[in-house]
From TrEMBL:
Residues 1-21 form the signal peptide. This is DUF6160 domain-containing protein. It comes from the Bacteria. Pfam families: DUF6160 (PF19657). InterPro entries: DUF6160 (IPR046158). Keywords: Signal.
Length: 348
């Protein structure tokens, strides 16, 4: 169940950030910013459509020598470590609709009707800007974002066009590189839909006196809902490993009709998180760190319609989790567990 909570929280933050989904925090949280003269920016986009997003891994995967030698993981005695790509199809980010899909859900929208409202200020960061006590100037962006309906189509893995040396333009069409989806493609997720409520956050670039580049301390009105999530397994599609002779077996799928996440005993979801980009230090080349908070009562999670085999299989029932809390240990010292989750993302 921890996987689902992390997925929900990280997906919510990542997609909200990419949609400029930030909202003004309260006065106490913004005490380090002047909040006076500045720029007000309203973003009136009602829908964003993306045909395809590809994430290329240019050096592929090198399997352990023992696995290659025995063919345990299907490399057939060799592994060329060829570039592959995660392929995300048919992304639609739109203003929230009601359950019937016949009108906007105004309870999950900003009063202005905008996708996002931003308040942008710059500040010296100290009263005496001529002081030699260090660089403290920063840019402050306080933002509000409307709730969103986010639909993501099938997600799969494929071979990158051009292999390990491929780059923009490898496909011969403009700057596209693409993937070899016709003859080397496997689905890993059948797709999913997200429904978010109004959110708020604060971004500071420069000295960032708030202690992080992005701070979220808000409630997602109506909680977070993920629908039609399917985890796809292609390992037995050819019918070889289970001893059968079925050559056209459909891929297997673990399908969840919906996942709802909210604060324990409530309908809304508290979102508390900080996002930092940590720079190079010695042999460590840096990383992105996301630290999310968990309320003391925890979160309630309701998973509806768990189906094994395919999305049309009979449901084995619903799963309900009450008051789930996660902890992390920032100092790695025994007994120093802290409510929340720390996620570190880096390249290799």
């Amino acid at each position: 169940m921890k996987m689902f909570t992390k997925l929900a929280l990280v997906s919510s933050m990542a997609i909200s950030a990419n949609a400029m989904a930030m909202q003004a925090m309260d006065d106490a949280a913004l005490s380090s910013a002047t909040g006076q003269d500045g720029i007000n920016l309203g973003i009136g986009i009602s829908k964003i459509e993306i045909d395809k997003v590809l994430i290329h891994d240019n050096d592929g995967y090198t399997a352990p020598a023992t696995a290659v030698a025995t063919g345990d993981i299907g490399f057939g005695g060799g592994n060329a470590a060829t570039a592959g790509a995660i392929v995300v199809n048919d992304i639609v980010i739109a203003a929230p609709k009601n359950a019937a899909g016949t009108a906007y859900d105004t309870t999950r929208m900003l009063a202005t009707g905008n996708l996002a409202d931003l308040v942008i200020d710059t500040d010296a960061g100290r009263a005496d800007s001529a002081s030699a006590t260090g660089n403290t100037a920063f840019l402050n962006i306080a933002a509000k974002v409307s709730g969103l309906d986010i639909d993501i189509g099938e997600i799969g893995v494929s071979a990158s066009v051009g292999g390990n040396t491929g780059t923009a333009g490898s496909a011969g069409t403009g700057i596209r590189r693409g993937a070899e989806e016709t003859n080397n493609y496997n689905a890993i997720l059948s797709g999913l839909s997200l429904k978010t409520g109004v959110m708020d956050a604060n971004i500071q670039l420069g000295a960032a006196p708030q202690g992080a580049m992005i701070m979220l301390d808000t409630s997602m009105i109506g909680g977070l809902e993920i629908t039609n999530l399917g985890l796809v397994d292609s390992s037995l599609a050819a019918g070889s490993r289970d001893g059968s002779d079925v050559n056209n077996r459909a891929v297997g799928e673990i399908h969840l009709d919906s996942i709802k996440v909210a604060d324990a005993g409530l309908a809304d979801l508290s979102v508390s998180a900080s996002v930092n980009v940590v720079g190079k230090a010695g042999a460590n080349n840096g990383y992105l760190q996301i630290v999310t908070g968990t309320t003391s009562p925890g979160n309630d999670i309701y998973i509806k319609g768990v189906r094994l085999g395919s999305s049309t299989a009979a449901s084995i029932g619903d799963v309900e989790v009450q008051g789930m809390r996660t902890y992390y240990n920032p100092s790695h010292a025994f007994g120093a567990d802290t409510l929340g989750t720390a996620i570190t993302i880096s390249g290799h």
